Amino acid sequence: MSAHPAAVAPVEKAPLLVMRAISKAFSGVPVLRDVAFDLYPGEVHVLAGENGAGKSTLIKIAAGAHTDYEGEIVLYGRPTRFASPQDATSQGISVIHQEMSLIDSMSVVDNVFLGRELTKNSSGRQWTDRAAELKEARKFCVELDLDIDLSRPVEDYSLSVKNRIEIAKALAFNAKIIVMDEPTSALSGPEVERLFALIGELKRRGCGIIYITHRLEEIYRIADRITVLRDGRSVGTAPANELPEPDLIRWMIGRELSSHFPDRKTTLGEERLRVAGLWVERPGTAGGRKQYLVKDASLTVRAGEIVGVAGLQGSGNSELFRGIFGAYGRLSRGKVFVDREPFTVKSPRQSVSQGVAYLTSDRKGTGLVLCLDLAENITLSSLRAISPLGLLSHRSERSVALKHVRALGIRARGADQEVSTLSGGNQQKVALAKWIECRPRVLLLDEPTRGVDVGAKHEIYELMNEWTRDGFAILMITSEMPELIGLSDRILVMHRGRMTAEFGRAEATQEKVLKAAMADNPV
Amino acid sequence: MSELPLPSPRARGAEPGRPAEEATPEKKNALARAFARPWVRAVAPLVFVFVIGLIFNAHGAFFQEGTHRDMLRQVSVYGILACGMTLVIITAGIDLSVGSVLGFCAVLFALLSIHEGWSAWGAIPVVLVAGTACGLLSGGLIARFKMQPFIATLAMMVFGRGLAKSISGGEKVSCAVLNPDGSYKYVEVPHIFTVIDHKILHNDIAVVTLIFLACVILCWILLARLRWGRYLYATGGNEEAARLSGIPTLGVKLLAYGLAGLFSAVAGICQAVQEQQGDPEAGSTYELSAIAIVVMGGTSLSGGRGGMLYTLVGAMTIGYLEKILSINAVSEASRLMLTGGIIVAAVLFQKVRK
User: Fold this and answer.
1) Record: contact A387-B227, CB cut-off 8 A
2) Has residue B3 got a pLDDT over 50?
3) Residue A309 parent element (H or E)
4) Which one of B234, B241, B246 has the shortest CB-CB distance to A352?
5) Which one of A381, A521, B37, B139 has the fewest CB atoms closer than 10 angstroms to its CB?
6) Is the pTM of this model over 0.80?
7) How far apart are CA B37 and CA B354, in angstroms?
8) CATH topology match: A1-92+176-256 vs A267-355+441-523
């Protein structure tokens, strides 16, 4: 498989945007290496790749959110270096985020002109001209077929309407380049059609659109050209009609399955975890029409087994874990059994005491208490056991912590080092140690190696093997395909909240799993 | 830590492929390194204020033992409130109601022991329970209904003041009891009042000061030695991570606000005893002094960091500041302005040194 040469532009026009030899590293870890990308007026250029391939970093550079990168950006034929997101916006680049960037409590018109308010005249620059703003905004809304009250707060409207308000905002800024990052992830079928019609209209006006999606169907519906990123490098660019689906998937996955996964000899024991017909409600929708993040999920995990739960963003796999763990409180529907005993899903506290542990995917946000030290974090979930009568013993806390420091190879100055000062891999090991110390029967691991360098990753793989040998059952989410294939004894695939496929260790390939995770129709 | 079988920082820095910034910069000078310790940052303002006292000693008044004893006595009621406030602030909350609850408890204590003639063994527990109930009420609103601590305790602050005025009829509850015919009947000051308002140990230490120190020790034990103390830090440091670690964050908040209410009641009893009456206006703006003490000590308003000994140091800093200004006969107007300025300076100082 050789990288395609830069494909011929669909239209004979000057490019709006050319990015050349873009490289970017986060604290020494390269995220983008020598990436090229261009965009012509009137085209939809899809940026494809696995999670973590570097798509959003590239977009952030294009939108001025990252300013320290190597390489060159040529905008409308002129070399440019954006000083800030505002700078990029003022030069005609608008980003429509998957999580909306509108301010919910402000009115539609105020949102549309946020940061570029129309003023009465040059002398009275402080006085916004609301009448003119309303008139302008109404003009954009007519163009977008958006019949809404402009002075009502944005929060009154549905996601689909908000989506179009964002586009109205982009138009108000006179955007020539519009970046859409998973714009359809929260839209229903007809709403998606409306968005696509609108994209057609934007193309006719000569806007260029950079489109990111995880859905294969969408790529082939609207793409003019496709650029694939993998591991921070550009694999190639091709016109959509010259890149059939199998090739696209191969471009996205590419590499051979590396052999850096430790050998696994699986000895399956008793059934450890069984989930039957589990539904997870979207929090905060209890009153009105119920929406479900996880629909009718059933699975079993046996002692000594690692089961991977694959799924793209929004597939509901993290929510499944949170649901089992009781992070959403009691379940509306479904049953969970641990060691064949009914398991009460009520609260994280209840789950921990019944032997289920949940490593969150966001160690800084929800995994660790950063202002506490290493020992305090490691013993946080098992304090009950090591503090008889509620009295802390710093000595036993330290000895517990040091035991894990040694077993997991945590590199730290001592048990009293604040975890905020540890490196990412070591923080992750602290979060793991916290759960191992509870001696859980079931481990739910959400992205156990996220943001961890290669060496530490390997160590975590070894540890997972060791724990399963000790009889833990592991349910794991990872967005890294090789890791999923290399570690899991079985792989379950989720798509839009449902379990859509299951693969054994022997039959699972990256192509099959990715296809099942992206397809709207179960394979 | 010497027995740690861990690689030394230098060995770590030498490891290939590890970012260089992980090795601690050892080249900072000794002063800067000293100021990196939180307790040094807490004690520095106290030392500074003390030195000011040595210089502006008001013709030797600062060198008299009584000055220091009075400082401790005068800061005690604020200090007791600051104990509860420290717990609440460590959970990343705030309690604005402590002053009002103090007023309510002072009135209740005076009513029960002076007018109703209850013995101390009856009156004190009832008042403590009442104060704790106020704290639990606002804690419940915050924990169960996810109300913002500022709002919930602001409501309790207003409500508590109303409660104090309602049970006192808006009048000070003192030893002069109004008869139905409009004349006053004077009753004797209950024994418990003289006991608490006493000075013991050769007339050197006020009982109120001892109560304050006892509160400090209790809170210190909770924060540094008990499991629930750790839960307070964890909840304040990262509530969601704490919850997902199986910590009962709801109970943790109830504990913090309940204890803040309890300490307000203790402070209310001390206040009533010192004034020999229950004033429904007692304790207004005391919540601000309590917050100032906690912040002066270096406990962070964003939660998860700080401790009881910092608050003790903060209380002494504020206490000495007030005392020095008053023995030098600085007018109240200038005193208030100076205190405000010095709080800002102390907190800025702590920030810069981070």
Assistant:
1) yes
2) no
3) strand A306-310
4) B246
5) A521
6) no
7) 9
8) yes
